[in-house]
Amino acid sequence: MDVRGAVGRIADAFVAVLSAAGATLPRVSEAAALDPNSVRLGRARGRYFRENFAQGGVELVQIIPELVTNADAAIAAAGRGSGRIVLSLATPDPEFLELWRSQMRSLRSPALTSWRHELRCTDDGEGVDAELIDARLGALGVESPQAGQRGLFGRGLRDVWLAQGAGRIEGVRAGRVVESWFFPAPGDDPYAFAHVRDEPAGDRDRRELGISVSGTRVTVPLPSGRLPPAGRLRTIVSQLVQLRPILEDPTRTLVLEQPGQTPQLISHSAPEPDLERPLLFDKQVEVSAGVSARIVVRRAKEPLSQGFSRATRRGGLVIRSGRAAHETTLAGSEGRPGARHLYGEVVCDAIERLQRDALDKPRPELVVKVDRSGLNEHHPLVRALYAAIDGVLKPIVAAEERRAGAHLIGATRAVAARDQVGLRALNDLLKTAFDQPGSTGKDPGDEPSRNAPDAADEDRHEPADDAPTGELDDDAAADESDESDTEPRDDADAPTPMLAEALWFKQSPVRLHPGEKRTVTLMADPARVSPGTAIEADADPGLTLTLQRDTVPEPGSRGHASVPIAVRAKVTVEPGARLTVLAAAGEHTATLEVVIVRHRASGWVREIARKNEDQPIEAEFDPETGIVTVYEGRREFRELEKAARKAGYSKKRAPEYVPYRMLEVEAAANAVYAWAAEQILVRRLHEEQPASPADYAAAVRHEHQTLRHRAHHKLMAAFLEPEIFDGAVTITRASKAAGRQLRLVPDEPATTA
């Protein structure tokens, strides 16, 4: 069979079919030219703009960077050597809120008309006037006028305002004060704004705005009725990755003001560097043709928690360009044990240049995501940048993991078995300390007593044996009546009793594993929160809530109303995160703290690792992995190892030598005690930490010793062999005392019966 001839005939027939089909179709060159009058333009509905503005951000981690970076750009535009930014949480002015509500109703705008809290950001920059607001905020797609500013990389103030449904800007510039309102347009237009005030600035205007010469105050309403705890908000602001360039700049001052709190100066708290190897890499690396980046990798002394959100993560490399910080990443080393100590930065100024070039193209491919949540991983430059970071981090992470596994000492089967028994006892102690830290009365007392109780007082207030519980006998009642008549109290001098909480959670904090669901109880005082009051509850991202009822019920037998709430932690939440649930009924609120813990069958402490290294600390506990590492290369361990060898133990069985084992257990237990003491202190004094370092150290030491006193005898019995406590250990005196220290008390001569 002629295969080649058959294939040729099939190809000729296929070409003939295509030619016949093409003859019936009109050619492109013969198509009629487009008439400009026939071209139709697309339309945008109001829903399109609302959906786009919603990407501007409704969470504080999205809103705060927009406000602070805008203020930073205004200070830079003023050309001043230094600047001050004040970020404050406040309640809206009732008169302004009423005026806003009436005006929005008259305009039929779908704007937000009621809110409990608002976020304000005041700066002493160049300020704004009506003309500047029209030019920069009056049109969509306006490019940042200055290079190196974060405003180039996505949405700005206007989008944040319209995502909330309202916004206001006030400023002083060139001796004039202006106030402008921004709100959603009633029709299909994207938005609307109006200058409600434009007049010469007086001293009163400057005092009310907190502006001396020129500056701006931007106000963003917060539709949510809940605010994060004061300490948590301060932590969020200080750890926001996008604010790092501002917080690290000595010419910028950022102040945080919160209700009921003194103003606080915010600065970035960098991780404490490792003493031996603080800097691991610092070089200029080629990313692609004509593009390079400076990569700096540092090592922290302690492991850095991954945290709940990458927006506030302390570890990883911060990618920066100009004045903007985009994200923190470890590229392909995310989650690797060897990367838990690493932090640093990647400076690539080409990101800004490529972003500007992309904005001028008909079909732009942006380097940074529009919502500014990070880099666009599909962009060629970003892929090349991640590859360059991988090339630097992979050998460093591999070396860290090898170093962590080096000098490990294997335990014998007997020691490993006793370790498991001891760890169970240690975890039981921690569970008792964390879950049952103590109990307090719900209602506070009126005032402390000036006199110690005595037997007579106790007898007087004791109920009689034959009297019903809760009733006093006649003599005791008469004594009390006489005392009350003869010793009247001066009510004017009496201290005012403390008010109990009107709304509270029965237990806080609670521990949840990722994916775990648990029911908590919200309690209410019916005297202050009337039955039938609507209940609102909100939680941080990572938690879901289910209320069994949405109103306060009638009080129960104990006089308090209770509402069960099911709280579930999402499987994606990171262990170590501390989240909050806020419940509100009327004007009262209650906060529940939820601590996310790692799934671990054996509890907090999972393993005792031993390293043949001489370190300044005897042991350290890593709560993320549950491993307590004892450094047995220290001199005290070496001396006891020599003694074990003299006693006939092999080098591998030296940890079975009783003094050696006791020292090992003491070191491991003390490391866990120290960590647990810090955790207990944080929970008991959530936002009232001791002011001075000495007081804090004393408080930690006290909790440490309390834990030892509570259960250390049980730990020793669990970690050590039971024969030790039966008196089976004896000391045999050596015949030669050469090289030993002389005994202070000589041995008593043996006596014979």
Structural features:
single chain; 753 residues; alpha+beta; 5-stranded mixed β-sheet; 17 helices; globular
Low-confidence runs:
150-154, 437-446, 452-499
Helix content: 25-40%
The chain-level structural class is alpha+beta
Strand elements, count? 24
- Supply the number of helical segments: 17
Shape annotation: globular
Q: Largest sheet, described in full?
A: 8 strands, mixed
Structure description:
A hairpin with a 2-residue loop joins β20 and β21. The strands form 5 sheets. This protein has an 8-stranded mixed beta sheet with strand order 5-4-3-6-2-1-7-8, with helices on both faces. 32% of the residues lie in helices and 21% in strands. With 753 residues, the chain is an alpha+beta fold.
Summarize this entry quickly:
32% of the residues lie in helices and 21% in strands.
Q: Which helices and strands occur, and which strands form pairs?
A:
Blueprint lengths: L2 H21 L22 H8 L6 H19 L4 E8 L3 H14 L9 E7 L6 H7 L20 H8 L2 E7 L2 E8 L8 E9 L2 H7 L5 E8 L7 H10 L4 H4 L4 E6 L6 E3 L12 E10 L2 E9 L16 E6 L2 E6 L12 E6 L2 H10 L20 H26 L7 H23 L19 H7 L12 H13 L16 E3 L4 E3 L4 E8 L10 E5 L3 E5 L13 E9 L8 E8 L2 E9 L10 E5 L7 E4 L4 E5 L3 H12 L11 H27 L8 H27 L34
Parallel strand pairs: 1-7, 11-13, 15-21, 22-24
Antiparallel strand pairs: 1-2, 2-6, 3-4, 3-6, 4-5, 7-8, 9-10, 10-13, 11-12, 14-16, 16-19, 17-20, 18-19, 20-21, 23-24
Helix pairs in contact: 12-16, 12-17, 15-16, 16-17
